Amino acid sequence: MSETFDLIVRGGEVANHAGRGLADVGVRGGRIAAIGDLSQASAGETFDARGLTVLPGVIDTQVHFREPGMDWKEDLESGSRAAVLGGVTAVFEMPNTDPPTSSRAALEDKLARARGRMHCDHAFYAGATHENAANLAEVEATPGCCGVKTFMGSSTGSLLVDDDAGVEAVLRAVRRRAAFHSEDEARLRERKALAREGDWTSHPEVRDAETALRSTRRLIAIAERLGKRVHVLHTTTADEIEFLALHKDVATCEVTPQHLTLAAPEAYERLRGLAQMNPPIRDTHHRAGLWRGIANGVVDVIGTDHAPHTLEEKARAYPASPSGMPGVQTLVPVMLTHVAEGRLTLERFIDLTSAGAQRIFAIAGKGRLAVGWDADLTIVDLKARRAIRNADMATRVGWTPFDGMEAIGWAMATIIRGCVVMRDGELTSSGRGAPMRFLENLEAHA
Asked: Annotated active-site positions, please?
């Protein structure tokens, strides 16, 4: 009697731990049950992947979906719809909402809001404050929490822990790897007057490379003294890459597709406020440093820092314009374009978008296309050439900094725990997202 599966993905090029080769993927009970020649097997559903490449599900480890409090820009439904339309199977969502996600009750409120509305799997960061350090161990133990996020420099929202004593209190309290927006707040205040009204090219002068490096040096010194694990979000400088290479025992880091693709001053001259984010888009010297970090293995993950604002908000004259840009829907085509153009291999793309997140955050059952793991698959056409367009963006704000870019490589289907949720640019199953689980937190789910 032939084997029976819930779903068979047939005839695609599977790219995983074994390399790249034609194979079928059989799914049963939401998990991968077999990889190989399944031509004699039957299934309740089949997906014809001939001519396509089957990847482990892409995980975006930094998104801001703005709910609660700023849902005219985005909400959990629209942000997760953008994610799955772009081939992203899971996201880590950030705490600088209104109110901020700084308590267990606030985190559980987000989980409740996500239930039946989010299309991708998800986890939520807890935000650190000067007041909640004593409670952070309890909050980070909440099922569905991916860890604690600390803003060492001010950005969107009210969360800020800018002093060494505050950072130390946070790190003493937590047990898991903690994530940091690493900019030195004192230097930001000193340089605020350097902002030239209406001139976005002054943004990387206000928030200069030294602002980032100084904060990261402070953070690593505290982490090493306390023996704690830290994660530097949206790393933007060549200097930080060189510094972090010497401290990989305690530190991991992320870069964004925007910082790998755009460069100052051209991006600000062309996109004006749409190019503004924190930390800033920097010049080609720093962009080249980030690519060296990709090549030599210092960079652990790609996260988009998807942080939408409306076009009306972005049109305000600098520095009144807000920082942040959408990114979750364009992660896959932008980074696959870099693959096509030889800047990184497909294997390194997989490491940065699935295996890396699993490794450093200890995600349970995700990040690997292997038997026994969740059947999260991002199915792509590596040869497809398509223009990224504002009109196709699912984000509520309806724009992307990559509008008009011809991408080489496109997500054709998104499969989450064996359910096809996106196919050929259309949402095919809604509200199926579930909280992610973490190895350091499994007892909380028992």
From this structure: 305
